[in-house]
Amino acid sequence: MSMLQHDVYFQQSPEQEDDNRRAILRIVLWIIAALGLILCLSNLHHGSVVVAWLELGIVLFCSVFLYKLKRTPKLKLWTTALLILVFVVVVYSMQIRALSAGSYYWILVMPPLSLLLLGLHWGSWL
């Protein structure tokens, strides 16, 4: 098989790429919403009320995003807003030391998540 034929298999139309991104995003949104709700309840239990409210905001944003996911033409805008919101909450939580010692893995998850959801060009900027 020549290189030209090999490249044809990996080229996707923008519609297919958008559908794949939406499918991945649906899974990621459910995971972030579930973890956010668990962390919100945990932070309320431990007395970090501000972080709990911020995490509840992330859960609500994910819920609205899941509702609009199939129809929104501004997918990158919504995705960028989600990632910025999560980045801000993680950095704020680290600053006030509301995260436990094992919770710093979020910093390692953010760059691959950004690349996965926004693509190579936009994800590398965030």
TrEMBL record:
Keyword annotations from UniProtKB, A to Z: Membrane, Transmembrane, Transmembrane helix
Keyword Transmembrane: yes
Organism superkingdom: Bacteria
Residue stretches spanning the membrane: 23-44, 50-67, 79-98, 104-123
Domain MASE6: 18-125
Pfam families according to UniProt: MASE6
Annotated signal peptide: none
InterPro entries found in the cross-reference section: MASE6
Protein name, UniProt field: MASE6 domain-containing protein
Organism: Shewanella fodinae
